[in-house]
Amino acid sequence: MTKKLSRPIKSDRDYKDASAVTNKIRNQTEREPAAERRLQALIDAMEKYDSEDDEGPNDGAEEAYNLPGRRWSDRDEG
Q: pLDDT above 90 covers what percent of the chain?
């Protein structure tokens, strides 16, 4: 079983964090092969997110927060 090198980017926050990690890895003078593979996986995930972003807005809120609706007792009955 192979270990995933990066997780999917679903929100702008994930994109920003992935960008920070890629910059940190790029600034290393001598990279190990594992770091090089992770860098490439992050870049691929960022490109995939960019291409999905071009198709339409998707901040991942619908997928990340699947909360139940309000209770009837919470409704304003005034």
A: 35
